[in-house]
Recover the amino acids of this structure.
């Protein structure tokens, strides 16, 4: 059985998110993920669940990795 990895993806592109998830799965994990694009949805996701890893696009139209890291 593959280990489960809970991943929060801060990303504005659905295609990029799917690529990230596929690559993690290729590494031997079952991935449970959520994609968020804004500070508000990130904060909600952080409050609702525990995450094993958080991955973020560096720059997005409405949010950025630097803003996310300031939370």
């Amino acid at each position: 059985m593959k280990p489960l990895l809970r991943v929060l993806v801060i990303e504005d592109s659905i295609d990029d998110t799917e690529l990230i998830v596929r690559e993690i799965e290729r590494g031997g994990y079952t991935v449970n993920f959520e994609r968020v694009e804004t500070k508000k949805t990130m904060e909600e996701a952080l409050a609702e669940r525990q995450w094993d890893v958080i991955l973020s696009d560096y720059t997005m139209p409405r949010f950025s990795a630097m803003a996310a890291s300031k939370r």
